[in-house]
Amino acid sequence: MPKTAALPLQEVLATAVSALGGSERSGQVTMADAVAKAMTDKQHLLVQAGTGTGKSLAYLVPSLLHDERVVVATATLALQHQLVERDLPRLIEAVKDVPGVDTSYAVLKGRSNYACLHRCREGVPDDQGALVELPEGSMGKKILELRAWAEEEAGGGGSGERDSAPRHTDKDWRQVSVSHRDCLGAAKCPFGQECFAELAKEKAHRSHLVITNHSLLAIDAIEGVPMIPDYDVVVIDEAHELTARVTQAATDELWAADVERAARRSQRHVEGPQADDLADAAGALRDAMSGAKPGRFETVPEDLSDALVLVRDAARACLSAYPRSDGDGDADAGRTQARGSVQDVFVNAERMAAGSDADVLWLSEGTDRIPPRLCVAPLQVWGQMRDKLLTDKTVVMTSATLMLGGDFSALATSVGLKPGERVLDGATASGEVAALPWVGIDVGSPFDYGQQAILYVARHLPPPGRDGLVKAQLDEICELVDAAEGRTLGLFSSRRAAEAAAEHVRERLPHLTTLAQGDAQLPELAKQFVSDPHTCLFGTLSLWQGLDVPGETCQLVLIDRIPFPRPDDPLMSARQKAADKAGGNGFMQVAATHAALLLAQGAGRLIRTTSDRGVVAVLDPRLATARYGSFLKASLPPMWTTSDPAVVRKALSRLAQG
């Protein structure tokens, strides 16, 4: 039976906000009402909610009050952790006495995020299927520590999630976890009843609210692999990341070494010549790849196409040669792992050999440490999202950055919603009945950007070139950092640019502490940055999101150039060309939209609370001089804008003096 809450939505929200020590925010109330209406009317919703709105509560409260199961999908582990460790427990404590509210929830992640008890207890098979002895030294000790932790989790009813494990590296974790391909399956595994991943799935089936991530949502809804129990509504937080995460989930890679490894693993389990044939096909692929030019293939070279067909057919034959399971519960981990590796090779080679116009195929640049690899990704994902997610479920998307160029159209189109289907004042924008009606609202921000922030565009600087930062830009950086007395987060287009800027600032301003990405792990760098205001932290795109440093620590955000995708980016260039071919403006639809999103995310690092003050300095004059500059600026918060360096330096000096 549908459940009914004794209190209306706004009263439950007010109860929760009060219990959590907050105060009512009009944007939060507006958003909560819109989310509840979308769930009831089964109408898609895009809601832009600025930093500080309290959007987590604004969708969690309606989700708890909804009659059916709701899935919440986040892009980053940081937000997932915040929801599960802070927001949800406090919210549930606040509303636990409200009649009719089902407060059950579960966290669901990919299988490799959980420790595997079979691997912990039985060990890791090598390429031939034999169990590998523990390595000596620090890695062996770390694996023993992780195994002991997993046993404690199993004995104490813990989740076995990687996030709660002792400190470790990716390499360490692979020794105690498995992918879905390597998993024996609960029915065959002798430890299936205790399996952390299976227990998490069972808990999700019993829960009203399921917290997961964009990638798992994509695998479940779009790839068609059942991972999440049936649900009515999905709330997608950090929705500006959705298309990138869906694309990432649908991207496959193939290395010649993958094929060779699959062949070696198969030799112990396949009696015929099929494993040797697969090894021969690996050699043909390696030769073809070594003769190919890195980059996107508009037409695949004949020898590479032939090699992919050879690998595909050899992998298919090898799979067929594996002995069939007798179904008696036999759990041969080595055979399961070996067959899974061949299955991966077959699926990827088959997709690459198909040469579908819906896919983009390219060869990556190799390095001294990493050999080249073949990559294939979907040309677009909006079609799959429209057909396989938006058509079946009610979807609420939210982020602080959904309106690009001052409008929802760019993002709506990228996820599969048509601008003409938008509902405006009870009618769709086109005036016709929409196939997938959607509502877009901006609930604003509690921040007064016009008073709290300055957007400085260094119009006098030369346009950025391909050779990195020039002297004029480096001098500008030093003058701004000096005026701010540190307190600077520098966001650069490349690691080389970040390191060059850091080196220059260290030489010119040795009295300040200047940190560069790579000097230490990001959490340690962030900790140092927060602890001393007279510090600068310079890094690349990975710093643009998820770094939350409110207060006087960050009063200057430096952005060296408009973050357009690289001209040789295979996927972006293919999408831009496809948009042009379809009669659109590929540059604006792909490159400018990509840049607007990253620029808005970078600028969003500055103002995190109502008391923050500071400057966003863009050292790229094109933001002021190019025709597309108005589109990019319309994607940013409404900051007071200037191109006068003297005005900005004085403002930063005043802020530094407190």
Automatic annotation (TrEMBL):
Cofactor annotation: [4Fe-4S] cluster
Name of the molecule in the record: ATP-dependent helicase DinG
Location of the region described as Disordered in the Swiss-Prot/TrEMBL record: 154-173
EC number: 5.6.2.3
Helicase ATP-binding domain: residues covered: 14-289
Domain of life: Bacteria
Species the sequence originates in: Nocardioides szechwanensis
Reactions catalysed, as given in the entry: ATP + H2O = ADP + phosphate + H(+)
Top-level EC class as recorded in UniProt: isomerase
A family per Pfam: DEAD
Keyword Heme (UniProt): no
